[in-house]
Amino acid sequence: MIKFFKKLLPPPSWKIPLLFVSGILMGLFAFLFYISKAHTYLSDDPSTCMNCHIMAPQYSTWFHSSHRERAVCNDCHVPHDNFFNHYYFKAKDGMRHATIFTLRAEPQVIFIKEAGQEVVQQNCIRCHGDMLNSGNTKMYTTQYDDFRAERHCWECHREVPHGRVNSLSSVPHARVPKPGSAVPAWLNNAMNKNK
Amino acid sequence: MKSISEMVSKKPWLGWVLFLGTIGIVFLLGLLAASIIERRAESEFTYKPDVIFSETEPRNEIWGKNFPREYASWLETADTNFRSKHGGSATRDILEEDPRIVILFAGYAFSKDFKQARGHYYAIDDIRTTLRTGAPKEGSPSPQPNTCWTCKSPDVVRVMKQKGVKEFYTGTWEMLGSEIVNPIGCLDCHDPKTVNLFITRPALVEAKSLLGTDVNKSSHQEMRTMVCAQCHVEYYFDKKKYDGVAYLTFPWKNGTSVEEIESYYDSIEFTDWVHGVSRAPMLKAQHPDYEIFMTGVHYKRGVACADCHMPYINEGGQKFSNHHVQSPLNNISASCQVCHREETAELIYDVYSRQDKIKEIRDQLEIQLVWAHFEAKAAWDNGANETQMKPILKLIRQSQWRWDFVAASHGSSFHSPVEVARIITHGLDKAREARMQLQKVLLSLGVKNGIPYPDISTKAKAQKLIGIDLASLQKDKNEFLKNTVPSWLRKATEREKKYNVKYLNAE
User: Fold this and answer.
1) Is the CB of A27 less than 8 angstroms away from the CB of B334?
2) What ipTM, to 2 d.p.?
3) What domains can you pick out in chain B, each with its CATH number?
4) Among residues A15, A5, A93, which one has the least CA distance to residue A52?
């Protein structure tokens, strides 16, 4: 077994060139990680979603809604039923978004996909469950399963929280957090000194 | 001097230094590359004109050098592949699809040739090729005045500025043939100094001031409708204002509804033409798009023409208006779904169902009108007199005016379906009244059998019935296109060479 692996290893004479090649690859990978701000994707900070500027309408409409006080993007758009599903869905959706953005394949008017709708619906219920089963609202909701379960909250609450106008170009002047320059301040300063 | 590989095999830590050092250098090179790319990207966000042109520059391609996104999308108005259920950008022969219209326009140029309008890109080509402008040559001028050029080109802005408005409206159509060569474009709607929207056609300013509004004080959102309302409106040529001048005028003195415009035309005893079959004094509705749009719910909610026909789009983080002016049915996403979050197929169904239903009742009115024209003809043929016929012909005029107001207005059945249905209903009522009275007249003249509905199942049959010789008209037109138009173009090219354009980034 070990012999087999040893066969796969390159001969010692390759050592130095390989050292450089793998160094270059690792360097490029580190740079890609840095420039795409990959580390931010582990957080729940809404400004992470603004790494792609086409999310500006979603960010700014949320920022002007009451949900801003209680919920960030991930509270609604990522499942919270269990730890694994949470990160699995986040990774899956994130990869899809990153791919579409990188390929410049985004539509002018974005619609939420079915899988995403289900997640949001469950998250509405996660926080607003009281509205569905409190005694006060019983008269509206006794037949929840029969009549309401197949509808989404936002079929009626249409403005919550992103408003009624949906387009990549709906809020061209909104002040939203931008990814900023990839060039670190020290490098900028160094270059400015040379002037 | 030892080789590196020997040094590394003696001191393994040196290998690690080289490995990590390479990572560090590549990373730093990446940062440097990022810095360079950012500086390059900055140029995209700075407005840097490539050319400086004069305030009367009519050529869209020259403007396009400074505004490449808008120009590139404007060029797409050349696309003729989109065909919706009732419209689109493809050429449709309206007379072929609905030969009844040949009869309705008997005695008028629209019975010769009537095609669905193509994109702005073709404005000049199409006015040259339509049979309605005739085939002018030495000694036989076009049947149309120069005023017909008014909505076709940014050259109009230039010539009006140089010659004067009244002078522009003087003379026959071929006189400005070599002057008006660029299709509807930039200078028609944009101030060359600020590129803000502005109004270039005097008729709109004059009509709006009659209604007590100053167009130039419109908000930006209103301007995104007003620039379209310069042309997409009902108009007529006022030949009484100045002697020998066909002065383009919007008939809005009493208001913009179908009845108010009619009352204005009646008050000045205006008639577009005398009908070739019934001899009724007719009105031709041009394209009251803006007038009907104003009665619809989208207008009421503050939606501008450009919101659906030139929706905002985002390209590379830059917001701009899509200058591919077209049917929103070809761009449901950016046009409808910005506000209406329904499925594309649902939205298209909603539009088609309105259009189908209006078409249904509009067709009924057309049939009644064709019949009325032929019954009137029968009455004349059997010796009816002027006094008997006058009230009937007036009813025919009123009925067809209502039909035409709806039929000529682009997108009317979607822009305002309820208003359009109301207008058609009154049209049907007028046609019914006309035909009732015609029956009485015919009976009094001893005509006991009903007048049969003519065989107008094809365009050719209908045109033959009213005596149009399409072949000879087309032959003259082809000669005109072959002999006259090239000389217009040569003159225009010579003139355009002299326009003042400064290239800033020329090699």
Assistant:
1) no
2) 0.76
3) 51-80+109-271+471-491+500-507 (1.10.1130.10)
4) A93
